Amino acid sequence: LLLGVLLWAPWRALHGAPLTELSGDQDFQLFLQRNLEFTRKIRVDVAALQRVVCDTFQLCKEEELLLVRQDLDIAQAPLEQCHKRTFQAETCFSQIRAGLRIYHGSLATLQALLPGHAGLVETLQLDMANLSSNIQQQMEDLGLATVTYPTENQDPLPTFSSNFHHQVGSFFILANFQRFLETAYRALRHLTSL
């Protein structure tokens, strides 16, 4: 119990003294390194899908599509708890898991749009589910509160009024997801330096 308190307490104030209790924990450092690599792999796969959307539909520059974006209902997962100034590991991990769940569902819209790349989308979704599971397991190991999501995706898929909106919506799903992954990656890297 005392060890659990020692491990949990520093998460509330990451700006204070170094987390010697966790920084020396080999299992935690191994978790961070493994999932930094995992996040990097997912980012590479998302970038590959972004290139496919660019090459296939000539949708490559976000600034050219901002007017169309206003007509679309594209979810953007928040990660404000993963920025350094307000960083809290427990809420950051929870936000990463919630975001992975949102993007997991949203990526299904790409399968219909890019049937020739359905395998890459499925691999990406599997990797996302595994990353979420890894984070949940680590949170449980540290005694942090976790939310268990139902295995069936309850979030409705984005709907689009035209094929063009579907293409642009897919572009923004990937762009938002890439930004989300960059923030998640920085948060995990930040934890390795504590």
From TrEMBL:
Stored Gene3D superfamilies: 1.20.1250.10
Biological process (GO), any one: immune response
Subcellular location: Secreted
Keyword Cytoplasm: no
InterPro entries: 4_helix_cytokine-like_core (IPR009079), GCSF/MGF (IPR040117), IL-6/GCSF/MGF (IPR030474), IL6/GCSF/MGF_CS (IPR030473)
Pfam family, one: GCSF
GO MF: cytokine activity; granulocyte colony-stimulating factor receptor binding; growth factor activity
Keywords recorded for this protein, A-Z: Disulfide bond, Glycoprotein, Growth factor, Secreted, Signal
Superkingdom in the source lineage: Eukaryota
Name this polypeptide is given: MGF factor
Entry's Gene Ontology cellular component terms: extracellular region
Record keyword Disulfide bond present: yes
Family, similarity comment: Belongs to the IL-6 superfamily.
Signal peptide: 1-16
